[in-house]
Amino acid sequence: MSVLVFTEVSKGRIKKSSLEAINYGLKIANDNGSSVTAVIFNEESPEILQELGKAGAKKILTIKSDLLADGNTRMSTNALEQAVNAENANTVIFSHDYTGKAIAPRLAARLKAGFVGGAIAYPKNDGGFSVRKNVFSGKAFADYIITSEKKVITLLPNSFQVELNAGTAEIVAFNPTLDASQKRITVKEIKKSSGTLTLPEAERVVSAGRGMKGPENWGMIEELAKELGAATACSRPVADIGWRDHHEHVGQTGVTIRPNLYIAIGISGAIQHLAGVNGSKTIVVINKDPEAPFFKSADYGIVGDAFEVVPKLIEALKKFKAGQN
Length: 325
Ligand code: FAD
What we know:
Elements: E1 2-7, E2 9-10, E3 13-14, H1 16-32, E4 35-41, H2 46-55, E5 57-63, H3 73-87, E6 89-95, H4 98-111, E7 114-119, E8 124-125, E9 129-135, E10 140-146, E11 151-155, E12 170-173, E13 204-208, H5 219-228, E14 231-234, H6 236-240, E15 261-265, H7 271-277, E16 282-287, E17 300-303, H8 306-321
Parallel strand pairs: 1-4, 1-6, 4-5, 5-12, 6-11, 7-11, 13-14, 13-15, 15-16, 16-17
Antiparallel strand pairs: 2-3, 8-9, 9-10
The structure holds flavin-adenine dinucleotide.
């Protein structure tokens, strides 16, 4: 018996959210006297893989196949189902990101497993295997008890601090049977985001909305993000009208994030937007309308014109960093 954790690499490193998922899986494994097996596609570098050992994996299954190279969910599900069976895994953990959200429910259906998407706390033995997640766009929590023997969980990124130790993992090549004729989707093009920080993993995020008036005004948003070492995000209409790429869109229909710092500039704070960001540890809102709903969720608010406030913030940050403050 084991806990299986799906992991990924980004920009030559194991994703932070994958390390969080390993830590999460380790807690479950420790509770039920089993161990964690990580699964990773198309990555064989021991230097990169051993980060998973430090996070708590005992074993790493590496699966190499061109059929998995473009994030094809059907192929990925097929490969993972075989890994679950080979490892006799009773619990499977994913990050609650694009890949996890695409594969985990499919795998759960295949395994006839109970599924909770977007867990935010370690499972408790509270009348059964109880998993907490946000509901009603983050306005409440719900504790779901999974009663099936097999369980599939996706974990919201940034829900926990990653803990690494000196552990090492056994690396094993796993070769599932994958049938190319079952492939239903061909990916024609992959556009990689240019920034060095991936949004779901960023500790700090600077986000802007329709209040910015047009894409030509994003220079100051990017500059503020650069000064803070933050990723950039946006509201949905901004992505819909093509001012920014869709991968930056946060909210109910976009990416869910939980950074330590979320700065919202010229964003009204509609409930659908809040659903993706209100798990942030500290929220700062800059809006010229004192009645903007976002202020109700803010830890700090600045009522003012973004075109005046943001340049002043950048200047203050630069001075601070130069030690002139
Ligand atoms: P607006 O609502 O137009 O707000 C602009 C804000 O900028 C205003 O508060 C204004 O006071 C302020 N402002 C204007 N000028 C300035 C200035 N110079 N300086 C400072 N402030 C200024 N939205 C999301 O973001 N994410 C989602 O995932 C999402 N999913 C949705 C799903 C559904 C089913 C539906 C129906 C809607 C969804 N929406 C989502 C849309 C959501 O309801 C809002 O319409 C959207 O979030 C508004 O975007 P905004 O705040 O950028 O624009």
